[in-house]
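Thread: Modeling a multi-component assembly for a lab meeting

Hi all, long-time lurker, first post. My supervisor asked me to bring a structural picture of a complex we are working on to next week's group meeting, and I have zero experience with this. I have the sequence lines for every component (898 residues in total). Could someone generate the structure of the whole assembly? Inputs are pasted exactly as I received them:
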Amino acid sequence: MSILVPAAAFLALTIPVIIALYFLRIRRPTRIVPALNLWPDQIRDRQANVPWQRLRFGWLLLLQLLAAAVLVAAAAQPALSAGTSLARHSVVLLDVSASMQAKDVQASRLDEAKKQAGGIIDLLGPQDRMTVIAVGSSPRVLASVVGDRQALHRAVSDVSASNGSADLSAALALAAGLVRPGEDARAYLFSDGIVGPIRTDSASSLPFPVEYHPVGVSGENVGLTSLVVRTGAQSRAAYLHLQNFGQQARSFSLEWRADGHLVDVRKLTLAGGQAQDLVLPVPADATQVAAHIDAGDFFALDDTATAVAKTPRAFRVLLVTPGNVFLEQAISLRPDVQLDVVAPAAYKSTAPYAMSIFDRFAPPTLPNAPFIAIDPPAGSPLAGGAAIGIGRVRASDAGDPLLTNVDLQDVHIARSQDLQSSKFGRALITSAQTPLMLVRDEPFRQALFGFDLHESDLPLRIAFPILIQNLSEWILPPSVPSHSFHPDEPVTIVPEAGATSVTVVRPDGSRRSLAGGSVATFGDTGPTGLYTVEQVVSGQVTRSWFTVNLFSEQISQLKPADRLTLPPLRSTTGVQSLHRGQLEIWPWIALAALGIVVIEWLAFHRGL
Amino acid sequence: MEPLLDPQLLRRLEALALRVRRAVSGKMGGERRSTARGRSVEFADFRSYSPGDDFRLIDWNAYARLDRFMLRLFVAEQELPLSIFVDLSGSMDWGRPNKALTAKRLAGAIAYVALAALDRVRLTVFAAGPTSGGAPYRGRRAVAELLSRLQSFPVGGPTEYSKLVWPIGRQRPGMTVFISDGLGETSLDPAMAALSRARQEGAVIQLLAPQEITPDWTGDSRLRDAETGVEREFTSTPVTQAAYLNALAERTHEIERAAHRRGLRFVRLSTEQPIDDMVMRTLRRLGLLS
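Re: Modeling a multi-component assembly
Sure thing. I ran the full set together rather than chain by chain. Output:
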């Protein structure tokens, strides 16, 4: 046992004070009288008639001394040594991801984790500090280096589980940033182990050890992991993927609804580990379709899937080329693009297109709109210098989002215009001789290729359609992407031209207004379901939709991980002077003191 | 063990007798005028003879004059039933001289006077309840047994006067002497009312210690009730002592008024008064003894 507040020992001075009061109290000799009722009830407080007399034993004195001693003991806050080891700075990492909503333990996995974290908080000594971090899709600090246990308990109890994933790497990086160099720290991770990829390289080493406290017991779950609506030549159909992630076979019913109306109900049975794909009808006029299963498992979030059934609005794109089948195919891959291909001689600048692609052609006047220009002829405003031979092709910035998944390793280009002196924009693809491709954001998103695609093997590489897709989506982002997003995933909304207001209606009916006129990122996508984007254009309200679904096999797997591979411990870790956690027992001692005071009161009234 | 009454006192007591105001109604013959007719030298009345009467009582002179049989009736002389109630509660075990001891001696002295006059004596001590002192005592030979029994009773416990109502009600008409300090928490009045109903002629003797009548201490103390053990802190000042004396006087007056209302004699005695003085002077002056 240890004493948390040794300074409270000075309160023990009350004990000699009580004894002194007993020395000074009036001594009243006991007189037996035949009839007490004849004597008036009259007493007069006076000074001690015999100061500093010999102390005589009395039950009241004993009880008062005992009560004082017990109160002093309570004030000193004695604590029993607990089994758990604590560092001076404890970092509690509380997993609040979707899988923590599973109810395979009492209440939920998150409640169990909170309970265990509360147990660590109770063990904190007066010198100990704690940081609490909620591990969600983005980590959140709930309490930073706090010693107040009440505040820590509040912080932990107030947190609720999200529908998103757990980015443990980000949480560990955040925790590492909150720990001072050389500080004696230790982290406690309360999680089911269903977390995003963890970087375990030495660069992400941790300045503190991490204790993993697994939460959850079962992986029995049936979940919907994919729902997409495909439009064929004649009709539309939905493709639903569902899987039994558990070991036991499960029978359940599937409800298929369109715009809330029941379309189909199917009885299904899935053996343990079995997956099934279903093709479900989509009514022609349906805006949204939803599937729901009643599997009676521990996890409800993946029991419902929603998809948008309306075809997105198409972009009109003009391709002016003497002939380029590669480009034509690459652009057509995008479903919401309506492509018009014209020869250079047939080009008219009056037709309204969302984007124009000029292949080896330059219009007399460059359109004041998004475009991609490829190998513009000499003499045109975009043309560069004389063609030069090109060696190795490389990315100007490998981290540029426009080059995501674009592998330029085996791409060769025979020759290209010299764009070194071009003022078009920043280089995206370059070489040792000259930049090969430039992009710019202002006045519109536009791109310039300095080489003829036919003088390169780029169109033959897988990188080409990806690059064109990236460029196309960058230049013409869908106003509202109609596919499904994961919870907490940001959604980019490009207001339509002339939109005066943009409002997002969430599945629970709450509305969020976005600033009209500029590209907005909507990040409030926690709840799963259908989101409606309402835009007011010229007084008319246009609606478009996107959905948020869990669709994560990793989370639906649900089985808690027994162990986690965590980043290595940094060699310059602070001195680990672990001490036992302390379980405070002063409330019980204070209760005992209260009992003694009550006994003393009773004893006084009984004339002891 | 020291005798309750010394022999000299006993000799002096033989000259005394209980003094009753009205004729008694005893069971056995004695030296008291009785309400019944019996054999004595004192003529009471005539009445007509009826068959079965003792013809020896026929007044032949009257027969000669009236030609009718007339019987001469004489006053019967019977014993006096005397009941002595002695308070031996906790409050009596107090004072110098001790009230309980004095009460036992006083009761013994009165009983002796009665027994010497062939009266019947019934002894009852009481505290929380009545305790019989055994079968009624009669005759001078019972004196030693009565005094011994009286001496053997323990002292202590609270006073419950109300529990005396039943044993008092069982008394034949006679005399009752009630010895108590009258300081119990309950009222003495029900017991005195019972005495009146039982046609008891008698006296209530309030016995107090001199330290009660005039407290001999001042200052701070913790008072403990001799009967209940209840304690209370107390500061004795002239004011509080005066309040006590008032309360005591009021209690005495209350008992006295109740006794007179019931036709009983009342006297307050202090234990510092010698027993023979109590008996020879005070009780004679009271009219209890003659």
